[in-house]
Design a protein that fits this description.
Number of strands: 3
Largest sheet: 3 strands, antiparallel
Radius of gyration: 25 Å
Number of helices: 2
Order of helices and strands: HEEEH
Distance between the termini: 72 Å
Helix content: 25-40%
Structural class: alpha+beta
Strand content: 15-25%
């Protein structure tokens, strides 16, 4: 079992917490590296975003879905989601035809 120790309180300071392990006195802070999840999928979403100027495209890491929303300036722009970039592109074309956003004004 770990031995816990309480730091001294300074002038009634309420921040007195149990200190142990790597957060205790005498331990050097370690550098923490940033983890990048699904870098290939994020790169695919960024590439698709560059090729589709009328759409905002992103990859949601937690859901592992590709999302796209139109940049038409309407009150309720269509937003589509798919597991693959090709599936997303199909849904985008379908949304363009059903909402008439592909037509010139």
């Amino acid at each position: 079992m770990k031995a816990w120790r309480l730091p001294e309180r300074h002038n009634g300071d309420r921040s007195a917490r149990r200190v142990s392990g790597r957060h205790g006195e005498g331990y050097r802070p370690r550098t923490v590296t940033r983890r990048v999840f699904d870098p290939a999928a994020r790169a695919q979403a960024a590439q698709l975003d560059q090729h589709e100027p009328g759409w905002l495209i992103w990859y949601a890491v937690y859901e592992r879905l590709f999302y796209a929303s139109t940049l038409t300036g309407t009150a309720n722009p269509p937003c589509v989601a798919a597991r693959t970039p090709d599936g997303l592109r199909e849904l985008m074309r379908e949304a363009e035809t059903t909402t008439e956003m592909g037509r010139a004004s």
